[in-house]
Design brief:
By secondary structure, this protein is α+β, with helices and mostly antiparallel strands. The protein is 40% helix and 23% strand. The model has no long low-confidence stretch (mean pLDDT 76).
Length: 141
Amino acid sequence: MGVEEYIVSFWWMAVPIPLFGVLALLFGSGAVQTIGLLAVLWPFTLFVRAWFATSKAGRLYEKGVEVEWDDENAYFCPEANRGVRLRFESVRQVARRHGYLVLRLRRTGFLLVSEAAFANPFEAEDFLSRFRGLSSVPAPP
């Protein structure tokens, strides 16, 4: 899921960078060709980079997390660890994908929240209601 969201977020880079690489390989020489080769290989590293970007957070939250929220923030608190504060104003888009709520942040990043993490559907809807001003917030099922 993390790799898929990473690709969705950075799709606009998937064509120009390898295209530059092909041109550099064809028309460049020396160091320019080396940079071109790296640019051509770049899309194949997406999966590894997405795994590295999400593996630490995945280990941190794999044993379960409690989410609490107030009017301005959500607090993700894993068992026996420091939590993370998410300001609601930092979320630019919300989507439902494969049983997760995908919170796309204003800066380059995203947060996956499992719909199964909520105790009941009312709790999930209360959490989603914080984002109703965004055009992409899914309607209740």
